[in-house]
## 1
Amino acid sequence: QVQLVESGGGFVQPGGSLRLSCAASGSIFSINDMGWYRQAPGKQRELVATITSGGSTNYADSVKGRFTISRGNAKNTVYLQMNSLKPEDTAVYYCAGHVTSTTRATTHYWGRGTQVTVSS
């Protein structure tokens, strides 16, 4: 079993910053790409940012220049630094990743999400 657990969400005023963290644990052989997605009320889940095992990154146009995705030294953690937050960034943020378990099966896992609310 593999678990992804997010932390770092909360309430922030427009223009503020938050840093989300996601830690993967369990029967992990290797972690390939990891990423952050978000879902606002009444909207579909959307990609925010992804990062490959080699460090290549990809961002949604709406967050480019404001958000930065990075991986920890242990490679089983991923972070999302969010700056210049806007009310439209309000959503539940989910961590996800393609993880190869010790059985060599590769599965796309999701965390349970963490709420980010941007409001004055």
## 2
Amino acid sequence: QVQLVESGGGLVQAGGSARLSCAASGSFSRIDVMGWYRQAPGKQRELVAHITSGGSPNYKDSVKGRFTISRDNARNTVYLQMNSLKPEDTAVYYCNADVLQVTNSFWRGYWGQGTQVTVSS
């Protein structure tokens, strides 16, 4: 079983910054892509950014230049540094990881429990 535990977020003023962390634990062979998604009230969950195990990032257009995703493979942790936050960034942010399972050597996607980020204007 794999667990993704997120931390960070909270209430931030517009123009401010916040940093999210997500650590994977449990039994697995390795982790490939790790990413952050978000879901605002009444909207579908959307990809914010993801990063490969080799460190190549990809971003949603609206966060390019403001958000930075990074990871520490030794700690099985992914980070999302969010700068110049806007009220429209308000959402529940979810961590996601593609994990190679030990039990059956299949890849499976796992989700964190979500962390609220609220940006006040």
## 3
Amino acid sequence: QVQLVESGGGLVQSGGSLRLSCGASGSIRLIDVWGWYRQAPGKQRELVASITRGSISDYADSVKGRFTIARDNAQNTVYLQMNSLEPEDTAVYYCNAASLRGNVRFDYWGQGTQVTVSS
């Protein structure tokens, strides 16, 4: 089992920045991919950014050049630095940890943190 706790959300004006943190505990050694997802009201949850065990990162087109995902192995923490925030970035952001075992994927989720960007 893996436990995830997010922090760092809040209210920010358009153009501002926030840094989300995701503290992990438990069987972290089993995790292959770390990710940040978001879900806006009335919309499906979408992948924002991910980083693999080998530190390969990927981003949704809508956040490329503005968001950066990073992992601190010593602190068992994954970060999402969000710059140049836009009202469209308003959503609940969820930390995700995935373990890949053959064709089976095991997902672990945090409780979510609200990010609100005012225009």
## 4
Amino acid sequence: QVQLVESGGGLVQAGGSLRLSCAASGSIFSINDMGWYRQAPGKQRELVAVITSGGSTNYADSVKGRFTISRDNAKNTVYLQMNSLKPEDTAVYYCNADVIRRSRSRGLYWGQGTQVTVSS
């Protein structure tokens, strides 16, 4: 079994910063892509950023230049540094990971979500 545990959410004023972390643990052989998604009330879950095992990144247009995704492969952890936060960034943020398990089977796993609230 594989678990993803997120941390770092909270309440921040507009213009402020937060750093989210997501650590994967369990029966892991390797991890391919890791990503961050978010879901605001009444809206569909959307991609925020994704990073490959080699470090290539992709961002939603709405966060380019403000958010930075990174990962520590030795720790099976992905980070999301969020700067210049706006009220419209308010959402529950979820991480996910494309995991190759020790059995060599593959699965997509999600964290439990962490709330980010940006006040104006």
